[in-house]
Amino acid sequence: MTFESFIEAQSFFLWATFGLALIMGAVVNKTNFCTIGALSDMVNMGHLGRFRSWLLAIAVAVVGVVVLEYLGLAAPGEAFPPYRSGQFIWPENLLGGLMFGIGMTLSGGCGIKCLVRVGGGNLKSIMVMLVIGVTAYFMINPFPGSDQTLYTVLFYDWIRPLAIDLNTTQDLGALVAAESANTARLVIGAILGLLLLVYVFKSAQFRGSFDNILGGLVVGLAVLAAWYVTSNVQIDADGELYSLGEYYAEWDMLAESEEGKPAQGRPLSPQSFTFISPMGQTVGYAAGGFDKGLLTFGVMAFLGVVAGSMLWSLLSRRFRLEWFSSPGDFVNHLVGAILMGLGGVLALGCTVGQAITGISTLAVGSFLTFIAIVLGSVLTMKIEYYKMVYEEEASFAKALVASLADLHLLPNGLRRLDKV
């Protein structure tokens, strides 16, 4: 995909992103692909259909990315955000994932589900989206009149010293076989993908569910397609080929003027779908007066998912306005949105951004974030369930201990509430 000018290349980069997100938004709405729903089904009803759909998306993305990278058609090692960073900041992955998992449970949906609900007319999700967006924006950008961000105020001083320097990238291929990392990634990714596919399709119930298969397949393919597109857009400048990022770095040498120059170069790097930081980018785009220089992959992904969901909602006549049922419902969504904004940026992604896109790079931090998100969400569900069943008898501490015992993270003898 070679273009004669930066503007043409960037336009393709952005509109291809929008098109992929549009399809994904419509299909996620249609199939009810939902990671929080998958965990809720698993914990509360023992149903694994939507969880298997999530794993199918991961399998498709993992296998596709390792094959494309082996063939030189994808560059996840140059990704934005840097999933494979040589600094393994495990506390950010762990704490960010836990915060995000708790937050998405309190607010009733992950990042992509929030955007899909916005497209479907859910007014609650508009509030959640705005709170996530503002929180995510100030996690990265300084407060007005200050050089401090939420990240530097809340996390930087104590969390960065805990990082581990790996002296290599943190993907499994490089850690297992540094000298032949590309081949190792191909083998590891193929084995992991195959194991996931066997687990997913061994269920006859799942094989009979068109929506679950369609949802997982399309989400996985959309993540894969985004990696391919963003890794292969090039500009032919007098016979020399440049990626968007490379051209931006050499702008003064290659461009005739500042016209059309984006505000930043990092968002031009190879990347795929994630939905928390892009909400912050969209807040910045709106606050900046919708300046074209602030248009990024993330903003177009945001707009595409909302538009795709709205399109399907209108076509299927499922567009419905919905508001908070009580003050308590509002508070839960507010707190959940703040935690999602903090945790999603801290952990470098969400249930799509880390658990699918990040895992497709085989980054150790992405696997840790996935585990932490699931743990945070499941634990919150169990605590809420114990408090609902036992009402006044179940203090938060008692419900927490019982929930941890259910998950075999504490001895059963410590519980003060009978298992429900």
Q: Can you offer a commentary on this structure?
A:
The protein is mainly alpha-helical and 420 residues long. The protein has one domain. 64% of the residues lie in helices and 3% in strands. The strands form 2 sheets. A 3-stranded mixed sheet has the order 1-4-5. It is globular.
Strand residue percentage: under 5%
How many distinct beta strands? 5
Instruction: Please provide the ordered H/E string of secondary-structure elements.
Output: EHHHEHHHHEHHHHEEHHHHHHHH
What is the radius of gyration? Answer: 21 Å
Global structural class? mainly alpha
Number of discrete domains: 1
Distance between the termini: 57 Å
Overall shape: it is globular
Helix count, DSSP H or I runs of 4 or more residues: 19
User: What composes the largest sheet?
Assistant: 3 strands, mixed
Mean pLDDT score, rounded? 93
Question: How much helix, percentage-wise, in residues?
Answer: 55-70%
